[in-house]
Design brief:
mainly alpha
Length: 182
C-alpha cells in the first residue's frame, strides 16, 4: 500500500484523531524501515562472506578459528532474523489498523525495540567482537606482519564504525518513540 493511500484511509477513518499529520508519521516510519532494510542487507552480506570464508578455510577439526567464525556468523544471523521478524510484525499491523491504533501499535513496537537495542544488540555485537578476536591469532600466523596489521587496524575501525551506526540508529528510534508519545 502506498503512503498517500494510507494517509487518505487514515484521514477518512477518524477526523477527531489525535494524530494530526499521518503523512509525517508514515514518512518517519518508512525512514526507519529503510534503515532496517539497509542494516539487514549489510548484515546478510557479511554473513554470506563469512560463510564463504568458513567453507573455504575451515578445517575438519574444531578449534578457536572455527569457534570465532561460528560466533560471528551466528550472532549476525540471529540479528538478521530478529530484524525480519520485527519488520514483518510492523508491516502486518500497518495494513489492518486505523491511524490511532497504528500509532499506539508503533509505541508498543518501539518500546519492544528498546529491549532489542539495549540488550540483544550489545550482546550480539560483543559475541561478534569476541569471534573476531578469536580469529586474530590465526591471522597473525597465516599472514605477513603488514597484512595482519592491516586486518587488525581495518577490523577495529570497522567495528568502531558499526558501533557508531548502531548507536545512531538507537538514538533515532528513541527519538521517534518520544515523538509518538507526545
Amino acid at each position: 500500500m502506498k503512503n498517500d493511500q494510507l494517509t487518505q484511509i487514515w484521514d477518512s477513518q477518524k477526523k477527531g484523531s489525535p494524530l494530526t499529520n499521518s503523512g509525517r508519521i508514515i514518512k518517519k516510519a518508512n525512514n526507519l524501515r529503510k534503515r532496517q532494510f539497509i542494516g539487514v542487507a549489510v548484515m546478510s552480506t557479511t554473513v554470506l562472506v563469512l560463510l564463504a570464508y568458513a567453507a573455504y578455510y575451515t578445517s575438519n577439526h574444531w578449534n578457536d578459528f572455527t569457534l570465532g567464525l561460528v560466533l560471528m556468523i551466528s550472532s549476525l544471523t540471529f540479528r538478521v532474523i530478529l530484524e525480519f521478524v520485527s519488520l514483518y510484525r510492523k508491516e502486518s499491523q500497518l495494513i489492518s489498523l486505523d491511524s490511532t491504533a497504528f500509532k499506539d501499535y508503533l509505541k508498543r513496537h518501539y518500546k519492544r525495540r528498546l529491549n532489542i537495542n539495549y540488550f540483544i544488540t550489545p550482546l550480539c555485537f560483543a559475541i561478534y567482537v569476541y569471534g573476531f578476536l578469536k580469529l586474530l591469532p590465526y591471522f597473525k600466523q597465516a599472514f605477513s606482519t603488514g597484512f595482519y596489521n592491516y586486518i587488525l587496524i581495518s577490523g577495529f575501525i570497522s567495528l568502531l564504525v558499526i558501533a557508531v551506526i548502531i548507536v545512531n540508529g538507537i538514538i533515532k528510534e528513541n527519538k521517534f518513540l518520544k515523538e509518538l508519545k507526545n
